[in-house]
Specification:
Helices cover about 75% and strands about 0% of the residues. The model has no long low-confidence stretch (mean pLDDT about 90). The longest helix has about 35 residues. With about 160 residues, the protein is mainly α. The relative contact order is 0.09. It has two domains: about 100 residues, Annexin V, domain 1 (Orthogonal Bundle), CATH 1.10.220.20; about 70 residues.
Length: about 160
């Protein structure tokens, strides 16, 4: 490797470090916006080009990744967003929960519920709890049809568990 190659390599590394720093700063800004008003955080990421609305599946996967992997997000804000009765929120929650893998026999009902709830705080509104627990029941019964084959039964148990909290 000659001096030119070494210099080019250093320049490339410096550019990458700068890109990484800018990305982190923009994720912090997106998190701040999301924590104040969730849809503004999603809009910011879309406007900056980090999320593209088409294809829809990639858009939803990107939102889910942002929600799961951004440590500065408020669990309450995540719960408010996922619990809203709006198309984007419903679709985002469906994607969010579909990414869990509860097929292993070691994952029981309580474990699955804890996994799901570890990333957000459910607002106390009964309709939101209902929607979230209904989807939880569907997903757990789909992943473990032998043990939890009745989605409605899982839903009732999960809903009752949440009401006792």
């Amino acid at each position: 490797m000659n001096d030119d190659d070494g210099a080019k390599q250093e320049i490339m590394e410096a550019k990458q470090q700068l890109k990484n720093r800018i990305f982190k700063q923009e994720m912090v800004k997106a998190a701040e916006k999301f924590n104040l008003k969730p849809k503004n955080g999603i809009k910011y990421l879309t406007d900056k080009g980090y999320l593209k609305e088409e294809p829809r599946s990639e858009y939803l996967a990107g939102i889910s990744k942002f929600l799961k992997e951004t440590p500065a997000l408020s669990p309450t804000a995540i719960g408010q967003f996922l619990g809203e009765d709006k198309e984007l929120s419903r679709d985002s929650f469906n994607q969010y929960i579909e990414e869990f893998d509860w097929k292993s026999p070691e994952v029981g009902y309580v474990d699955a519920l804890k996994m799901m709830l570890s990333g957000f705080r459910i607002p106390g509104e009964g309709q939101i709890v209902d929607r979230i627990m209904q989807k939880f029941g569907e997903k757990l019964s789909k992943d473990r049809p032998v043990e939890f084959g009745n989605a409605e039964g899982v839903y009732f148990l999960a809903y009752a568990t949440m009401m006792l909290q």
